[in-house]
Design a protein that fits this description.
The chain is an alpha+beta fold and 246 residues long. Helix content is 41%, strand content 26%. The protein has two domains: 23-120, 2-Layer Sandwich (Alpha-Beta Plaits); 124-239, Alpha-Beta Plaits (2-Layer Sandwich). The chain has helices spanning 3-21, 38-55, 82-94, 96-105, 153-170, 200-212, 214-222; strands at residues 25-32, 59-66, 72-79, 117-123, 140-147, 174-181, 190-197, 230-239. It has an eight-stranded antiparallel beta barrel, surrounded by four helices.
């Protein structure tokens, strides 16, 4: 192999490695507060945390409060890479401005009841490109987490890519985003996504119409997905007033 060819191969390899290392990574975080402290947490995010995230290279995607879970905040943020995420969190925690905000916001007691839960994720190749439309107080988001049967995640993805997302839109459900966890073991079998409904009543009607749709029944039967490893976990949520996604 001549030197030019070898150099080209090395260059291509490094380029591919750079692409992998710097690929966008999302983070789904869930905070549980002590009783009566959710308003304090929202105020801290609204007035300080979101701006400090931006300062340290963390992009805020969406913030939601589950309707059936008291004292809970769910949010999604975006990092340029996993390495960037680590560096950003270290810089954020060490920031004197954050330390001051954290200290002053908890003068009358700790806000969080336990450590935040975190899931790193990457978008699927069929994930939507979200654009905010009209929004009102009845709007409802739904976070759904699927665990496919062993070896069936690819077939589940194909069903969503080729059929489900289109049928969701047909029945009034807007596709927000679709992700896979990046870390094992969940990276092998989990699908995480968010959709939007016009209201709780609309959500019920949409799911009923979707489930009864002959096109869905045909796609489900032909997909080879079979039964999920366990029933989907569903969380209905309201966007906060400081959420980018509304």
């Amino acid at each position: 192999m001549n030197r030019i060819a070898a150099t080209l191969i090395v260059s291509i390899g490094l380029s591919m490695l750079t692409t992998i290392v710097t690929a966008d990574v999302y983070e789904l975080r869930t905070y549980t507060t002590n009783a009566g402290k959710l308003d304090n947490l929202n105020a801290r995010f609204r007035d300080h945390t979101v701006a400090l995230f931006e300062k340290h290279g963390i992009q805020s995607i969406g913030y939601w409060v589950p309707v059936a879970k008291e004292n809970t905040l769910v949010y999604v943020i975006k990092h340029k890479s996993r390495d960037t995420a680590k560096a950003s969190w270290q810089a954020f925690i060490a920031d004197p401005a954050w330390k001051k905000v954290a200290r002053e916001s908890q003068l009358d007691g700790n806000i969080l009841a336990k450590a935040p839960e975190s899931v790193y994720m990457e978008t699927t190749d069929y994930s939507a490109t979200w654009k905010n439309g009209s929004a009102d107080d009845d709007d409802l988001f739904e976070l759904r987490i699927y665990k496919a049967a062993e070896g069936k995640l690819g077939k589940l993805d194909a069903r969503f890519r080729d059929h489900t997302i289109r049928l969701f839109e047909k029945h009034g459900m807007r596709n927000v985003a679709y992700w896979h966890p990046t870390d094992e073991p969940n990276s092998k079998d989990h699908l995480i996504y968010i959709i939007k409904h016009e209201s709780r009543a609309a959500a019920k009607a949409s799911w009923q119409a979707f489930g009864a749709d002959p096109d869905w029944k045909k796609a489900a039967a032909a997909s080879g997905v079979g039964r999920l490893a366990k029933p989907p976990a569903s969380t209905y949520m309201k966007a906060t007033d400081y959420s980018a996604i509304k």
